[in-house]
UniProtKB/TrEMBL annotation:
SUPFAM superfamilies tied to this protein: Glutamine synthetase, N-terminal domain, Glutamine synthetase/guanido kinase
Record's keyword annotation contains Ligase: yes
Keyword flag S-adenosyl-L-methionine: no
GS beta-grasp domain span: 15-100
UniProt-recorded name of the protein: Glutamine synthetase
Organism in which the protein naturally occurs: Cryobacterium ruanii
Length: 445
């Protein structure tokens, strides 16, 4: 760590960095930033930077307001969109109390705690997110809703299109920040794009997702358009998910791989999926944390609404992708409910905790779904034992309230704050009179 600190201090001097942004995340997943002068960085490494945590969503209660932000030197990067005028860098921070204890409500610390539990069992947790988002002409919207930048579809090549330039610039910028991109393409909705980040350990991935959102927003501003990670900005078009591929490694060996097993999926892999399925309804208020998230989950377009798994079945909640011969290291499972607006630290904590619970308790994996689950009738789904994911944020809160797994993983303070925040959102939403109601009822009633 000392070598890393020295590298940061040397780079700041050599590259003429004028500002260093210290980044951290609140409980809802909003990125927070405070800029310090280069001369303050060494002090921040040694002592942390003090601030009032009670002003940040869910971070502390008012009577324990003082916290310290400790920059993590391994996350140091120069921000490419700032250019050569007043070069600026960033580091992610861990939040502690004044006596040096990790702040229980720091989302990054919640994930670190869960990863430490996995490490005690000999596992490293890797994730690979496929992040979808919409590019709109602006953040303003008219009677017909937001206006996308194009009318292209899945994998479309749009000569001279905004999305091409946008993706090229975004990918270049992400690579400059040390974030490897696997591929990028136009998605199914007009103006909808997807950029997939390469596999990394879950903490690195969560940091990368927070950086990714910032890069996408910055590039959009630069190009005169607007990017949104809202789960379902347009009712008639697909929502934006963040399908995440996951695997556990024991040392250099993929714990999900077993040569000769069905789909080359080991017992540990099967139990991990069983844990995800059993606890999926409880974790949905975090993986899908907004009222709007449920418009995506229940809006069709391959969004998963029912708790089941399948081999390469895109209507299932958990998918086991096609096996690549002689590539045991790539064995993985894909969780398809999580959307692009989730707090990645908390969501990945709960997805990992659910999978680990399945391994610890030896959960049995139910039979796989071989049909398109959406095309089955309710009676057929019931007969096959496919329960549904929560149908609304209110429904999801009810599952979460009863969950020992979520309470234990998030810790009491984060658990209570998420519930408080989400209940308030539901109350605010429930009190709205929507255009749908006015169109449907005003003249008729």
């Amino acid at each position: 760590m000392d070598k890393q600190r020295d590298f940061v201090l040397r780079t700041i001097e050599e590259r003429g960095i004028k500002f260093v942004r210290l980044w951290f995340t609140d409980v809802v997943g909003t990125l927070k930033s405070v800029a310090i002068a280069p001369a303050e960085v060494e002090g921040a490494f040694n002592e942390g930077l003090g601030f009032d945590g009670s002003a940040i969503e869910g971070l502390t209660r008012s009577f324990e307001a003082d916290v310290l932000a400790h920059p993590d030197p391994t996350t140091f990067q120069i921000l490419p969109w700032r250019g050569e005028v007043d070069p600026t860098a960033r580091m992610f921070c861990d939040i502690t109390t004044p006596d040096g204890q990790p702040a229980v409500a720091d989302p990054r610390n919640v994930l670190k705690r869960t990863l430490a539990k996995a490490a005690e069992r000999g596992f490293t947790f890797y994730t690979h997110p496929e992040v979808e988002f919409y590019l709109l002409k602006s953040s303003k919207y008219g009677k017909n809703g937001p206006i996308p930048v194009d009318s292209a579809g899945y994998f479309d090549n749009v000569p001279g299109g905004t999305a091409h330039d946008f993706r090229r610039r975004s990918v270049r910028m992400l690579e400059d920040l040390g974030i490897s991109v696997e591929f990028s393409h136009h998605e199914a909705g007009p103006g909808q794009n997807e950029i997939d980040l390469r596999y990394a350990d879950a903490l690195t991935t969560a940091d990368n997702i927070m950086t990714f959102r910032t890069v996408v927003k910055e590039v959009a501003i630069e190009q005169g358009v607007y990017a949104t990670f809202m789960p379902k900005p347009m009712s008639e078009h697909p929502g934006s998910g963040m399908h995440t591929h996951m695997s556990l490694f024991e040392g250099d060996a993929n714990a999900f791989y077993e040569a000769g097993a069905k789909y080359q999926l080991s017992k540990i892999g099967r139990q991990f999926i069983a844990g995800l399925l059993k606890h999926a309804p409880e974790i949905t208020a975090v993986t899908n944390q907004f009222v709007n998230s449920y418009k995506r989950l229940w809006g069709g377009d391959e969004a998963p609404s029912f708790v089941c798994w399948g081999h390469n079945n895109r209507s299932a909640l958990v998918r086991v992708p096609l096996y690549k011969p002689n590539k045991g290291q790539s064995a993985r499972v894909e969780y398809r409910a999580i959307d692009s607006a989730a707090n990645p630290y908390l969501a990945y904590s709960l997805m990992l905790a659910a999978g680990l619970k399945g391994i610890e308790e030896g959960y049995e994996l139910p039979p796989e779904a071989e049909d398109n689950v959406w095309s089955l009738s309710d009676t057929e789904r019931r007969a096959l034992g496919y329960t549904q994911l929560p149908a609304s944020l209110d429904h999801a809160i009810q599952f979460m309230e009863e969950s020992e797994l979520v309470a234990e993983t998030l810790g009491e303070q984060v658990f209570n704050y998420v519930l408080l925040n989400k209940r308030q959102e539901w109350r605010d939403y429930r009190s709205q009179v929507t255009p749908f109601e006015l169109q449907k009822n005003l003249e008729m009633l």
